[in-house]
């Protein structure tokens, strides 16, 4: 009964999404405030029904109702409660429902936090979001109904894929989806602006906080996913250039470009058509990511099901979105000309270069991800494009981006004197190269890659500090407190995020250059050495869990004759599907992780043990954290609220004037 | 400088940057493609020597053996028609089993495939598409011959 209620609620949500898609747009066209006013309650009602539907599905999982096909395939009566709840999205159908729910949540947030927007503009935004929502809910209902019954019911379920039974998986998908789907808001703002023919600084200002928050979610989602892959897949890598990772990285790159382009549009009125294209592109890449992950065309943990109908549906959705947006763009392009002019050496130019490079980087990932699929589809052979390609491309493309990223904020808008600015930062630049080469030599790994990475990181850190010093020195004579207060939240946001990139680069360079790995065969009492650490195998014991059997190895970690504790990697076999799983054990530190995982047990009772030494790997996630916090600061700037109040006053005044 | 020539320089610089970036991407792409070959193709000598490529198929029954060091593994990949011996040093994926699909990446050295990477499936029902493809090809070829 409850699954059917969930199904009906989802159908009602579809009906409401269609109302939201059509009525406000008609209202905006006819300038009828009654019709425009329908958007808000329709969106909120839709959220209620999707939430209800989602709760019903979760209920089926919690109750182990195995007459529901989805629960039978992805849950088990012995699965811990937490993983019964997260199992709802650990599959194709449930994750689509989560997608629809995220979109609905974003839409409701728009209705709540955008009261200051002109009615017609808000109506158009809600209309566009309604179409996207209708597309996804109908996709769910038609091709991937999560409430499908399994009659007769099975006695017990097949359990959730053991790889997904992990705390990281509790937060990774919702964060990532909030990011993916969040770009639909930036997209809706851009389309609404194209529809109304009003692409101005106000539009960019309204759109900016939404874009930034979506970017924060995406950053956090990717970072958590990377952390999960690191400790759960059992072989110590943090990024594999797997097509699914690429699917989330492409919108991230383009979204980063969009954030910066929006800044130019807001401050200077320039780059308007470019900003619109980026908004369309970032959202299209989010849809493409959904297509890649959900259609089963690629091989990965994330590819749940192979059903050509589903792939086709998303592909059709993608073609409609891109086709319609570009058509609209072409029709309105003549209104997008102009904007503030700027000199050859200016902050605009540096942001333009950054945008071009980020877009090319995004396109290079797209090429590496899609080309093998195309060849295969055309029957021209099977190839794969691996990490060597992406590394060969990313180092040269990102080097100028990082150099510019730290230099750009020194430049003034509109026009600046290149020579003067270069002279100002030259000492920091020379010092960074010296520090980079020097520390590469100090860690005894003087390759050009290590030296380059560390120099770039030093450059970001030093230039950021100099930028901060200069900003604080601007108001000479004022007290330190008032100087600090004069810096806006969005400036701190920019500064923190850029600084985070520096920390991130240190992590990537160090772990890429200095990590150590060895596979050894160990019996009880035997020991092995790696990177100055001694590992003593103290035997393996049984350690069965609620839905798995396991052997747990006890490996003592010793450094300079002092014990650092016991590492306890496990080899599990999940009972429902008989699936083996490696559970690594880590000793986490600020400057290094020591990582141990169990391979197989040999006939003579010995185990194969993988030992890893991972210097500075936490800095990768620390850098991502700083970027995320920076994004939150930027979105929380008081300016948006102050100007929002002004916009609202203007809108009310306008209405009063019209009434009079 | 006039506004127009400034703009020209900006556009020219942007386009030059773009071309340089695209050239870089395409050349890196060319150099780093990894091709896939079926065991039949490898035994016919169609696979490159001294270059990294992938083969896929089933892990032959009874072929997995460990060397004395316990770390080096020998096994064979078959597409049901031909068999290619493989050696690999390291930990095998959890779902690597005899009679199941697998894809290996590495180089051919003296008739033995030295794998640097072993990919198996992620869950019980899943077969790597390359492995399925290799078996399918071999079976198709076998049918044509018997006709």
From TrEMBL, chain A:
GO terms of molecular function: heme binding; heme transmembrane transporter activity
CC per GO annotation: plasma membrane
Give the bilayer topology. Multi-pass membrane protein
Write the record's keywords in alphabetical order, separated by commas.
Cell inner membrane, Cell membrane, Cytochrome c-type biogenesis, Membrane, Transmembrane, Transmembrane helix
Q: Does the keyword Nucleotide-binding apply?
A: no
Membrane found in the keyword field: yes
Q: Boundaries of each Cytochrome c-type biogenesis protein CcmF C-terminal domain copy?
A: 315-638
Single biological process term from Gene Ontology = cytochrome complex assembly
Give the matching Pfam families. CcmF_C (PF16327), Cytochrom_C_asm (PF01578)
Domain Cytochrome c assembly protein stretches: 89-295
The record's subcellular location field reads: Cell inner membrane
| Membrane-spanning parts | 6-26, 47-64, 96-114, 121-142, 177-197, 209-229, 249-265, 277-305, 311-330, 351-374, 394-413, 425-442, 448-468, 489-512, 616-636
What is known about what this protein does? Required for the biogenesis of c-type cytochromes. Possible subunit of a heme lyase.
Which PANTHER family does the record cross-reference, listed alphabetically?
CYTOCHROME C ASSEMBLY PROTEIN-RELATED, CYTOCHROME C-TYPE BIOGENESIS PROTEIN CCMF
Family per UniProt?
A: Belongs to the CcmF/CycK/Ccl1/NrfE/CcsA family.
Name of the molecule in the record: Cytochrome c-type biogenesis protein
Q: Which organism is it from?
A: Thauera phenylacetica B4P
The major lineage groups are: Bacteria, Pseudomonadati, Pseudomonadota, Betaproteobacteria, Rhodocyclales
